[in-house]
Specification:
Number of domains of chain B: 1
Order of helices and strands of chain A: EEEEEEEEEEE
Order of helices and strands of chain B: EEEEEEEEEEE
Number of helices of chain A: 0
CATH architecture of chain B: Sandwich
Structural class of chain A: mainly beta
CATH class of chain A: Mainly Beta
CATH topology of chain A: Immunoglobulin-like
Radius of gyration of chain B: 13 Å
Oligomer: heterodimer
CATH class of chain B: Mainly Beta
CATH architecture of chain A: Sandwich
Helix content of chain B: under 10%
Number of strands of chain A: 11
Chain lengths: 113, 112
């Protein structure tokens, strides 16, 4: 099946710093989503981005589907950005299980004041 | 609009028991998916239901089952609980089978 790899696994930043999180995937995808999981376990939708570039405030994302990777940019980080960031893909061809998301292992971000 | 809701929030069960978890999707969404997240890992797909029919199943044993009701809410059932079933169970809803998914707050299940 499709493999999703996220890097780095852990990231520690000082408040105000910028960062780039990467997601590589091994096969063609129909859908790619970025999530932020807060300390209480809630997965918060950041971007639905199967291709192209999107921006939402201090966050932006780029997916290059032909090269099978996506990047999440966080600028001017704040302590509230801390948590785990997940990339999840929906394989383009997945037999009878279309519509399910395959998650990476996440990047754990800690922003220090 | 209300988001995805799940109940209960927390649950403690004993090995061998049965558990039922519930999920209500966002209004207008017809697809519900279930995921299991163990500590330190990303969520893993269990089931997808669309229009009350099972449309996808992950690599989970037959002890796991689910159903979707006419109002599109869903239940996840797990029989003969094992210690390894301890996890955060997440429900996601989407408009259709291949649309953006939105997650509920999860049910944290502890099996002792």
């Amino acid at each position: 099946g499709i493999q999703v790899e996220q890097s780095p696994p852990d990231l520690i930043l000082q408040e105000g710093a910028n960062s780039t999180l990467r997601c590589n995937f091994s096969d063609s995808v129909n859908n790619l989503q970025w999530f932020h999981q807060n300390p209480w376990g809630q997965l918060i939708n950041l971007f639905y981005i199967p291709s192209g570039t999107k921006q939402n405030g201090r966050l932006s994302a780029t997916t290059v589907a032909t090269e099978r990777y996506s990047l999440l940019y966080i600028s001017s980080s704040q302590t509230t950005d801390s948590g785990v960031y997940f990339c999840a893909v929906e394989p383009l061809n997945y037999g009878g299980s279309q519509g399910n998301l395959i998650f990476g292992k996440g990047t754990k971000l800690s922003v220090k004041p | 609009d209300a988001g995805v809701t799940q109940s209960p929030t927390h649950l403690i069960k004993t090995r061998g028991q049965h558990v039922t978890l519930r999920c209500s999707p966002i209004s207008g969404h017809k697809s519900v998916s279930w995921y299991q997240q163990v500590l330190g890992q990303g969520p893993q797909f269990i089931f997808q239901y669309y229009e009350k029919e099972e449309r996808g199943r992950g690599n989970f044993p037959d002890r796991f089952s689910a159903r979707q009701f006419p109002n599109y809410s869903s239940e996840l059932n797990v029989n003969a609980l094992l210690l390894g079933d301890s996890a955060l169970y997440l429900c996601a809803s989407s408009f259709g089978r291949r649309y953006e998914q939105y997650f509920g707050p999860g049910t944290r299940l502890t099996v002792t």
